[in-house]
């Protein structure tokens, strides 16, 4: 390689966005000899701490978004664009490429101004990307609201999406401004990006990835090269595997504990929280449950606040719950070392909101799931896991539509922890765990895709530099 590449990565606020971006940065430094500068807008102390622990990338902290007024992330990132522009232009060296996450896509013109290539880090799966790429077409073709559309949304060469079950919430209602903002960024992907880094791997989604590359299928909508480089997840850090939780886990039988968590910001209604508590207690299975105070607004209400009062959520549990379950499980308020818990041999199930990082952390540890989607693309992920990959169970009616009752929760927990069906899911999960590990090995599909991306970045940079010299 002629000279070292330097990636500037723009990361949207929120722990769920930060974690994969930090890991991408580390992969580029470690495996491709990049220098990496990550620009963050930390919205909590926890985010700032997570970012500054990363020693091998430069971290530039920009002012946090104003979360006092409600606004969707696309709008927030649009408002923050000028701050990011000033920070990139103030760098000692001009970066050789810009990488943004989905919500940062409106910052692509900054790369054009600097004469450098621009890439999207789509920290999700290929099926969701396929839907996003087709969104502008669906927007033109579907009459009325998607939510009222009875027919599935057809994506060439891929599994179709049922609007009422699989489609991201903000795309369901045209009267919501977020719908139009989302279609706007979706339409920019094929027009403006030089490549897409995907947090999946070839062997996990072979058909969808092939469709993305086939000009008769999804390739009709986007010819941008796609690099499946995943699973990119935070590694297990042994110094986080100490303390009461791990002392307790060490004493439990292999694969006997179900971990219950709703990501960095998912929150439940009080009624739902009570049903989960009873469901866990009735199931008589061992558990670790990360709890937050219930939401009275939306399920993502806690997304920008991983800090908070540790005692607060406990008072919402059914009376006597902690006492009655003291030999069965642990309740952890607000935040737990999820990767370390999922990789502990005593953990055998995960009741999850199925954010994509949590999903990958479950897949790479071979832990079968109960999918409990709350918001965003979690609905798509839930269907992928339960119906396409066959590694999860789900409630009869999705949790965002109606409170799932204790009896059904008890049955699902027993099913994945002790039934024959659970064993089948576990076996499939273990195969996926092996396939993920292989993809990341030297010569594996994701390892190779990352090298191809680096080569593409270098050649795009040279091409643009030549054009700039000629002009
Ligand atoms: N996470 C964690 N401890 C918690 C909750 C979340 O370490 O108590 C981490 C989790 O391991 C994952 C990320 O936060 O890496 C959540 O990302 P995901 O995409 O699953 O969901 P989001 O938070 O974006 O909804």
UniProtKB/TrEMBL annotation:
InterPro entries hit by this protein: UDP_glucos_trans, UDP_glycos_trans_CS
Annotated keywords: Glycosyltransferase, Transferase
Enzyme class label: transferase
Database matches in Pfam families: UDPGT
EC number: 2.4.1.-
GO molecular function: UDP-glycosyltransferase activity
Membership in a protein family: Belongs to the UDP-glycosyltransferase family.
Record protein name field: Glycosyltransferase
Organism for this UniProt entry: Malus baccata (Siberian crab apple)
